[in-house]
Amino acid sequence: MPLHSGHSTSLPDDVVRHMHVLRLQAGDKAILFNGEGGQFEAELLQLDKRSATVQVGRFDAREVEPPYRVVLAQGIAGGDKMDWLLEKAVELGVAGVIPLMTARSVVRLTDERAARRHAHWQALVRAACEQCGRNRLPDVAPLTDVMTWLESCAAPPRDNALRLLLSPRAEQPFATLPGTAPAAPVIVMIGPEGGLSATEEAAAISHGFMPLGLGPRVLRTETAGIAVLAALAARWGGW
């Protein structure tokens, strides 16, 4: 949504609902962002059940992103796990999410259902940004078959990305990662419930992914990515 200082503008439905949740009233102050960085001060002029108008004020170039870029390539999880994972990943600073359909994925989505789920995930990410104060919107890619996605990944990576494959079979521990954040992007690949198949792991390794272990305990799929994002924040200055 375009925002311009000194102009009044109507807000989209999801933002109107969020303002009702916050119990805002006409005359209250708010912070608005368009997902591209920075934020605007605003005053709520009018709030009805389904509409709201604000006066857009001063722009603040405030940045809250980590000093590194991590993309989570996640085998989709069943039930509410994927929603929970996305919400927490946004709070922990993930720059993007690539949902992957894998051989052991519990959830199977047709093209129509996959499109609806993708729209749902995008809305969830926007809501999570509003809740945690992020003003850059993480990208959520459309659901993709894992082997198709891997074939699209150049080997070796042209962008010098650090590619990490979380696997309970990996011998290299997390502690061997560099102590400072790389300038290049980081892609963390995680399987669904039951993990990636041996064929999928072999394909990932052939495309430049480094197998990485998280210790002797096997973490659930919705735990592994969050644990890594939190650990990287502590290690690379993301807090």
Automatic annotation (TrEMBL):
Catalysed transformations (reactions): uridine(1498) in 16S rRNA + S-adenosyl-L-methionine = N(3)-methyluridine(1498) in 16S rRNA + S-adenosyl-L-homocysteine + H(+)
Keyword vocabulary terms for this entry: Cytoplasm, Methyltransferase, rRNA processing, S-adenosyl-L-methionine, Transferase
One term under GO cellular component: cytoplasm
Enzyme Commission no: 2.1.1.193
Localisation per UniProt entry: Cytoplasm
Uppermost EC category: transferase
Any Pfam family the entry gives: Methyltrans_RNA
Domain Ribosomal RNA small subunit methyltransferase E PUA-like: 11-56
Heme recorded as keyword: no
Chief location: cytoplasm
Keyword flag rRNA processing: yes
Any one Gene Ontology molecular-function term assigned to this protein's record: rRNA (uridine-N3-)-methyltransferase activity
Any GO BP: rRNA base methylation
Domain of life: Bacteria
UniProt domain Ribosomal RNA small subunit methyltransferase E methyltransferase: residue ranges: 65-232
Function (record text): Specifically methylates the N3 position of the uracil ring of uridine 1498 (m3U1498) in 16S rRNA. Acts on the fully assembled 30S ribosomal subunit.
Family to which the UniProt record says this protein belongs: Belongs to the RNA methyltransferase RsmE family.
Stated name of the protein: Ribosomal RNA small subunit methyltransferase E
